[in-house]
Write a structure and sequence with these properties.
mainly alpha, two-stranded antiparallel ribbon
């Protein structure tokens, strides 16, 4: 099997087996009752976009780790010292679950404060080429 075909085969296999897992586990959806076809179509499109975003996040972070021969430490709550070069989208997003954006309006001015990022969170932003400025830009003040 040629390398290109193997990559395509692996990607197709992963999509078929892992996509249901990602949708069921990461999104934890309750049953949804829709009555019209346009609602079904809209929900299907939304879930498709969410699945693509999760897949892309996971792929880009893993690719960055492999290109740098690097492993991330701290993604496993049950074993914070465990290293991984193939983090799941769920673990990547969970690493950002404790951040907060606070917006305060005081005397006609608006102040923003964001929770500082950990070194792990900064590194996961750097892997896809984003950098911490994407996050810290939320803290601009206006008035």
């Amino acid at each position: 099997m040629e390398a290109e075909n193997f990559v395509l085969f692996s990607a197709e296999s992963w999509t078929k087996t892992e996509s249901k897992y990602l949708l069921a586990k990461a999104m934890k959806l309750d049953p949804v009752f829709v009555k019209r076809n346009d609602q079904v179509e809209g929900l299907t499109n939304l879930l498709s976009i969410a699945l693509r975003a999760l897949t892309l996040i996971e792929f880009v972070v893993r690719r960055g780790l492999q290109q740098n021969s690097e492993k991330l430490t701290g993604l496993h709550a049950e074993n914070p010292k465990k290293e991984t070069d193939s983090p799941t989208a769920e673990r990547i997003l969970k690493a950002y679950s404790h951040i907060t954006l606070t917006i305060i309006e005081l005397a006609g001015q608006i102040f923003h404060h964001v929770t500082p990022l950990s070194p792990l969170q900064v590194r996961m932003l750097e892997l896809p080429g984003l950098g911490p400025e994407v996050y810290s830009g939320l803290e601009s003040n206006s008035g």
